[in-house]
Write a structure and sequence with these properties.
Layout: H1 20-32, H2 80-93, H3 98-112, H4 121-125, H5 144-158, E1 170-173, H6 179-182, E2 186-190, E3 193-196
Antiparallel strand pairs: 1-3, 2-3
Helix pairs in contact: 2-3, 2-5, 3-5
């Protein structure tokens, strides 16, 4: 690299100015240093005899990988337990909203997860005096009610949605009265069903 000429500073050299005296002084100083310059300093380029500098290596910014999308492992295999749950939801709550159906399905799952009840959906469904014999109930499977009950049952079995009725394990129709249910802590009423712990 050839040594660069020392450039004396003059008023207006480093900053754009409209003062003709400062511009003239800058031009004279540059001429003394052997440098030819344009008088418009805001746009001028000073050419110095320099060897080209070595290329700097390209800096590559490391970026953190995007977080993987969280997914819930969904067990939607139509096994005996899922079929029992779909039949319960279809039979007990097909006339309710999706939330009302989810409440019934989650209640069944609360029982399955409770040590006070059997540990499978079909065993809960067939427990004496509780639901009904799902084997004898065969609703149409191609209609919208079956499809909704299936979706709700998969949701409840996999714990996808937030609990609608907390840890409720009993429910009854809102239009009736039951001394047994009334003696228990009430959790919520969703449409035509009242849920209890």
């Amino acid at each position: 690299m050839t040594a660069a000429a020392a450039i004396p500073m003059a008023t207006g050299f480093a900053f754009e100015t409209n003062d003709p005296n400062a511009t003239e002084a800058d031009t004279e100083l540059l001429a003394e240093a052997g440098i030819e310059a344009d008088t418009n300093f805001a746009e001028s380029t000073i050419a110095l005899d320099m060897a080209p500098e070595a290329e700097e290596p390209e800096i590559v910014e490391e970026t953190a990988p995007e977080p993987a999308e969280q997914t819930v492992a969904v067990n939607d295999t139509m096994d005996a337990d899922l079929e029992c749950l779909v039949k319960i939801v279809r039979h007990e709550a097909a006339n309710q909203s999706r939330q009302g159906q989810l409440a019934v399905a989650q209640l069944v799952m609360n029982r399955v997860n409770s040590p006070r009840f059997p540990n499978s959906i079909c065993a809960v469904a067939h427990q004496r005096g509780q639901f009904f014999n799902t084997h004898a109930y065969n609703p149409p499977r191609g209609d919208a009610r079956w499809q909704t009950a299936l979706e709700v049952s998969i949701d409840a079995r996999n714990g996808i949605s937030a609990p609608v009725v907390g840890n409720a394990i009993f429910y009854r129709a809102a239009y009736g009265y039951s001394a047994f249910h009334e003696s228990r802590p009430r959790v919520a009423q969703i449409e035509d069903h009242i849920f209890y712990r």
